[in-house]
Design goal:
about 200 residues; alpha/beta; binds zinc ion
Length: about 200
């Protein structure tokens, strides 16, 4: 069983102040969360640097990802080291994730830039039901959406500053291996919690 923060922005997102080094240091020092997904806005540049810094520590894992601003709303892709091809529509991004064995997640569906009810017509793998930056009412609506679509619910801090890191986590029935973690999420072997 591992605990993961599946939605984090580094300084490779123009609106974040989190240095990759800070992300890694806080992950190393955290008592229970040992996995973090780097999901910058429309950029995968921060992933490789963060992974490189994390490689010095065998007990933590960085999952490379991205948060794509599609025309319909934000979608996280977990497990990718590449950007999907343009145009970034909901369909194209979700299809790209499926074709590349990644996990697609409707990010904060009921907050600004979320897919909202459009997520119902998508083939995303999971719904972000606990977002550290969303009001609880929006997270509750996302929880209802996940249940009605019979999809796994995941959690991520959506941290843009160091003090926001690791505020929530997804508990995943997996070992410290990225492929196993992504498969466990798809199977719904997950539970979300706040710290
Ligand atoms: Zn975000």
């Amino acid at each position: 069983m591992i605990r993961a923060d599946l939605h984090i922005h580094t300084t490779f997102s123009s609106d974040s102040t989190i240095q990759p080094k800070t992300l890694v240091e806080q992950l190393v020092n955290h008592s229970s969360i040992k996995v973090a997904a780097v999901t910058d806005h429309d950029s995968i540049q921060g992933c490789s640097l963060t992974q490189k810094l994390a490689s010095a520590y065998p007990d933590i894992l960085i999952i490379p990802g991205v948060e794509i601003s599609t025309h319909q709303g934000d979608i996280l892709i977990l497990g990718t080291t590449e950007l999907p091809p343009q145009p970034w529509t909901m369909e194209n991004v979700v299809d790209f994730a499926r074709d590349n064995n990644c996990v697609s997640v409707a990010a904060h569906p009921y907050r600004e830039y979320g897919l909202g009810d459009l997520a119902r017509g998508s083939r995303v793998n999971a719904i972000e039901v606990l977002n550290g930056g969303s009001p609880s009412s929006a997270n509750q609506q996302a929880q209802v959406l996940a249940r009605s679509m019979n999809l796994p619910g995941v959690a991520g801090s959506d941290a843009h500053s160091p003090q926001e890191l690791y505020s929530v986590y997804t508990q995943i029935d997996s070992n410290l291996n990225a492929d196993n973690i992504l498969n466990a999420i798809k199977k719904g072997h997950v539970k979300v919690s706040s710290c």
